Amino acid sequence: MCFVEPYQQSAPLVGTVLDGRYRVDTMIATGGTSSVYRGLDLRLDRPVALKVMESRYAGDQQFLTRFQREARAVARLNDPGLVAVYDQGIDGRHPFLVMELIEGGTLRELLRERGPMPPHAVAAVLGPVLGGLAVAHAAGLVHRDIKPENVLISDRGEVKIADFGLVRAVAEAKITSTSVILGTAAYLSPEQVSTGDADPRSDVYSVGILAYELLTGTTPFTGDTALTVAYRRIDHDVPAPGSVITGVPRQFDEFVMHATVRDPAGRYTDAREMADDLHAIVEELGLPAFRVPAPANSAQHAAALTTATTARKPPPVPQHTREITRDDIPPSEPEYQPVSGQFGGVDIDEFYWARQRAKRALVFWVIAVITLTGLVAAGAWTLGGNIVAIL
Question: Domains (ranges, CATH) in the chain?
Answer without folding.
Answer: 5-295 (1.10.510.10)
